[in-house]
Amino acid sequence: MAVTLTKRRFTVDEYHRMAEVGILTEKDRVELIDGEIVEMTAISSRHASVVKRLNALLTGRLGARAIVSVQDPVQLSKASEPQPDVVLLRPTPDFYAGGHPEPVDTLLLIEVADTSLPYDRGVKLPRYAAAGVIEVWIVDIAGDAVEVYRTPVPDGYRDVVRILRGGSLSPVAFPDLTLGVDEILGPR
Amino acid sequence: MAVALTKRRFTVDEYHRMAEAGILRDDDRVELIDGEIVEMTPIGFPHARCVIYLTEVFVRRLEGRAVVSPQGPLAIEGATQLQPDLVLLRPPLVRLPSAADALLVVEAADTSLERDRGVKLPRYAGAGVPEVWIVDFAGEAVEVYRVPSSDDYRNVVRVLRGGSLSPVAFPDLTLDVDEILGPRQA
To answer: Of A19, A90, B82, B170, most Cβ neighbours within 10 A?
Structure first.
């Protein structure tokens, strides 16, 4: 019998408290999505290599113009704190020691998707849009493409472009930075 | 788009630490079901009256023979801790009650019938709770579940208004379905 149970949802503060008192530990690979504590999918070596590539490319080419955040939390709202694969953050002198970055600090957010494509597109993307994250890239490893989402509206992005191998793209925040899709995906 | 997310599930121990740390508070009406923290449905008048009535009768008639626990916790296993509407426990009470201490569980189901039957009942059976009564206000009956198997009860009887029933553990105590259900709802 299918019975719908209403889950007790948690705020970001309650979620942090769980970590402070040791209920959630370093071993927990979780995100807070709309008050629910969700397990993250296992990272394949292919996925990890794309994240490393992005980190190297962005750090190398942007230098001090942005902080490159890899798989660290972004506090989207009172009830969501995901850990995107890569985020370009507005530089601050304390490197966000005083609190996790918020959407206003987020210049570009990148999710690398191998098995997580439906989750990244269906669950995370609408929440990034609702929080006002100005630009999201989803690296579709299986599809050999990078999807670019811009102009957030309350439940999605108005401008969506899919760029295939051979193509290149630039973040809105750094129009002078151009990355090739092949550079991001690496060799086939 | 429907995407299945894997929730982080919690143990009974972690659940208790959330209360100690003030993450879950007194005003949280929740249960832990298979590691998920689930909100309980609000309590309406027929439900409240039924639990108060049964508490009174059981306390009066079973003095020294059973501990009456209305809306208290009952540990089921590592990741489930339910809060039945009423439990008769084997005395004396020396620790957090678990299924092994339960003589009878009563669930008053006004809005929660499907959840009581579909979610909680199999867990009571699996944990070996010997007898469960589900008070079905809409159906004007009390369902009696006995002889637990791994996820269900072998022996199920539905007693309607006009009928009466006794707990297996206390055959000398007979209750009328009319008294349990209270006045007919408009």
So the answer is: B82
